[in-house]
Every structure is written in structure tokens, then in C-alpha cells.
Amino acid sequence: MSTAKPNVPDTPEIERESIEDRLYTVKYSDSGESHLDVKVEGICEEKCTNYECVNACPADVWRAEEGGVPTIAYENCLECGTCRFACPHGNVEWEYPETGNGVSYKFG
Amino acid sequence: MSETPNYDSEYDAIVVGAGLAGSTAALTMARDGLDVIMIERGPSPGTKNVFGGVLYTPRIRELTDFDDAPKERYVAKKTYSMLSEEGDETSMSIAPSSWREEPHNNSWMVLRADFDEWFAEQAVEAGAMLVTETTVTDLIKENGEVVGVETDRPDGELRAPMVVLAEGANSLVSEAAGLKDRDDRDNVAVSVKEVRKYDREKLEDRFHIDGDAGLAAHYFGDGACGDAVGGGFLYTNKRTVSIGVVYSIEDAAHDKKTPDEVLEEFKQHPAVAPLVRGGRMVEYSAHAIPEGGPDSMPELVHDGAVIVGDAAGLVLNSGVHLEGTNMAVESGYHAGRAVADALAQGRTDEAALASYETNLRDSYVVENLEHYGWFMDTAAEEKEFLFDDLPRALGRAGDAYFKMDNTPKDEHVSEAKSHILDATGGWLGAAKKAWKFRKMLS
């Protein structure tokens, strides 16, 4: 993919926002239990080497761990569904957070 | 519809999701005298919805008093820019004077949390019932026919002769019930967007806009989102700017850079940085977008159910035309009418609902999807040329063509030509590529 910022004079420096800063702008209500899971841990352990769920997730929900089974920070989830499609093994268990919980966009 | 037999429910139709497609279907059916209930999982309609930024309104204008709708700015100007990762920009700007006059080419920037709430309210005013913070978890089927829905509320079963599935890009219910398959990841894009707030005057000065006029800017090339099939966008709202990137999940899965990092890089590009400097990010959002074209459309009509909007894969990306809101509304409209006609005959079977599919296929919706169906595959095939070689070649050709030095212009022209021909693989390559993309602007 693209390399670092091109070095072009007289271009304003844009402050990079961390994923934490980004997620901080999102109104969120915690259902208290994860709406995401790995279907079969053995598939992550044995078949997956490249953490495509981690690469594709825009909200730092999926995190690579030793042993191959990612941890899931479900309370970061933006309910975009990208991981559902990204996992080449179809190993993402994905539901909507219950009864209106989860993200609630003010702009959208 | 009291003559419809064998149903103990008070509703004729259940609409799953109060987005654009769902609310249009509910509005259409309620106006036809049906008892309709919309089930929305968010705290209010729109709170779970994300889009780039432009609502196309030809049908919405016919159905509602659109002047009352909460909206941001009309599209007074569109720009298309090729960005190389070295920092070049080559762009085209389109601003016909007619766009400044009513109805502004039916193209308005809106914010979904505001608009969708208002739009669902139009359906409610027409008599539809709206239930929020309730998620439909499954369909109830009897003898292969859809006869209702399960929800996550206590005693959450609800039965009705018809179910309209307007559940969006993540169509969990339709998939679980076997009405469609999950799309392959090369047919789905991930989009991330941030909304940045500015002083209104500053925003209008920066984008040379005034009154309700606004800008819709589109960016392609590896300066926008790396060598992925996709692009960047920027839309001006009243006091905010929506900026984001959209690219294939196939590419996102292989790239160590996460979508938020790709967006950060897009914002650093010399063509983009001056447009977004300052201000404050007030919201970050993300969503999957079905971009599989006509081949990804599921069966739209089932016994007791129809599928509309994003759930039906109704998004057009032709490289030039990026549409979905109008297609969602159009599908909800045709589905609503078909359901009303079928129920008027006391029927809910697939054959009785077939007019939905027929009318959608006869409309611009499927016509356009089929006309531009070749584009996404060709773009993926020609990824390196389109997103990498071409933006760089255009940047270099522009540099050469307009060069100020002590050589005559014909040398500049031949240098510019050679940059382009290097990228295309000579005249023959250029001819082949032109042939491949010949339908892009037609």
C-alpha cells in the first residue's frame, strides 16, 4: 500500500488521530456482553497465519495474540461488519448488540 | 387488510430496519392503507447508519415534502481527482449552473442521524408504527413461507403476512433464514469516515461555497487509499466536512495498514491536507458496502418476504457514479407497491410479489447495475495501472506539458506523451486500455 506521507513543501502537517481518539468521538452503550466471537478456535490456531480480521478492522476490535486466536475488544466495535467478510475461513461469529446497544451515531 | 385470513397479528407487514429502503417501503404501504410496523435496532432511525454523504432524491421528492427535510448542502460542484502517492494531483471539476437551481439535480449532502429520523417520521405520519431498540434476530417460517420475525425483546415474536427485509449491508436475518448468501469479500468494501467540524464561514471560504451550495469531491489512485481498489471522498455539510476512504475488503484483509491508518494517510496528501487542516473530529464511523454489482443481487422475492436496499446489494460504483441512497429508496418504493398489490388479492406468495422484481429490473436501478457491472472486475484486473501507474503518469505528464524552461513546447508535449505511453504500454496498450474502459463515460 502507499508509503509514508509524500514530502511536498508547503503542505500543512495534519495531526494524526490515534484510534483511541477516533473511538472517543463515538457514542456507545455497552450491552455488557460480546456480540462477537471466534466460531472455532482451532481454525485460528491451525489455519490462520496472517490475522486478516486484525488488518481489516477499522476499530481495533480484533487483536493478534500468540497462539493465533485473536482477542476481541467488542466495546470498540462500530458494527461495520468488515470482519465478517474479511475472515477467509468464515470463522467470525457476528451478531448485532442486543436491544439498541452498541454504537449510536450522532451524524452518520 | 382484514380479509387476509389466518393471521392473528394486527399488522399486514413488518419492515426490518428503518433506513432509507425500509422507511420508503413502510411509507408506501401505509399510504396504501396497510398496517405496517417498522422494527429498528438503533435508539432512533439513522443512529446505526453510515454513508459517504450524498442523498439522491428524485423519488423522495415525489413521496415527501422534501423542503422540510433536515439537509446540509446541495451538490453545486463535483470534482474527480487522481492522486499519486508522490503527491501529484490531476483533477476535473464539474459545476453546471443548473445545479444551483431547484431541485439542485436531486443531490443533497445530508447527515443520516438527522435525515433518517425525519424520513421514518414521514412513514409514521402516514400511519406506520415504529419500534426502536429492537433487533430482529430471525425469521419465522412455516412450510417454507416467511410468516413473521423473532426479536430480542421478551415475547419478541411478531407475525404478519409480509416481511420487508431492509436490514442493510450486514443482512444477518436474510442470511440466517437462507434467503441469501453472505457476499465474498472482493464484492464488499470497507468505508471509514470522519466528520470534522469547522467554523461555518471558514468552511465556506475554504471550499468557495456559499448559501446552501456544497462540494462533492472524489479521489482515486494510490495517493487516496494505496494500491487498493477504492478511493477517497470529501463532502461539505453546513458546518462539518465528511471525509473518508472506501476500498475492497479483499485489499484491506491483505494490508497490514488498518482502514483508520489508510484514512490518516489520505488526509496527509498535499491535495487533501489543506482542505481538512484545523477543525475538530466530532465523529468517526465505519461500514461495509456491498459493491458486487448485478451478480451479487440475491433473489429479491420470497414467499412472504422481499429484500430491499443494501441487503439486496443495490449499490452502484462505476468509478464515476457512486450511488446507493436513490436505489435503496427506489427498491423500497417498488417493494411497498408490490406488497400492497399482493395483499389486496389476499396473497403473499412469490408469484404474487413478482412485480417488485420486474419493476426494479425495468427501472434505472438494475439497468445501471447491469450497464456498469463490468467496472469493478475490470478495475480489480487493472488495479496497478488504474491506481498506481496512471495517477503518477498524469502527474508527470502535467509537469512536462506545462514546463517553463528554454526548450520549445513540442519537446514538452512529446515528453508528456511518453509518460502516458509508458504507463499504458505504448499506443497499442493505450488502445487496449481505452477499449477496456470504453463504457466508463457512456
Automatic annotation (TrEMBL), chain A:
It holds the Pfam family Fer4_ETF_QO. GO terms for molecular function: iron ion binding; iron-sulfur cluster binding; oxidoreductase activity. This is Ferredoxin-like protein. Could be a 3Fe-4S cluster-containing protein. The keyword S-adenosyl-L-methionine does not apply. Residues 68-97 form the 4Fe-4S ferredoxin-type domain. To ferredoxins from P.putida and C.tartarivorum, ferredoxin I from A.vinelandii, ferredoxin II from D.desulfuricans. It comes from Halapricum hydrolyticum. Keywords: Electron transport, Iron, Iron-sulfur, Metal-binding, Nitrogen fixation, Transport. InterPro entries: 4Fe4S_Fe-S-bd, 4Fe4S_Fe_S_CS, ETF-QO/FixX_C, Fd_FixX.
Automatic annotation (TrEMBL), chain B:
Its cofactor is FAD. GO terms for molecular function: oxidoreductase activity. InterPro entries: ETF-QO/FixC_UQ-bd, FAD/NAD-bd_sf, FixC-like, FixC-like_C. Pfam families: ETF-QO_FixC_C, ETFQO_UQ-bd, FAD_oxidored. Keywords: FAD, Flavoprotein, Oxidoreductase. The keyword Flavoprotein applies. Residues 377-440 form the FixC-like C-terminal domain. The keyword Flavoprotein applies. It comes from the Archaea. Residues 212-289 form the ETF-QO/FixC ubiquinone-binding domain. This is FAD-dependent oxidoreductase. It comes from Halapricum hydrolyticum.
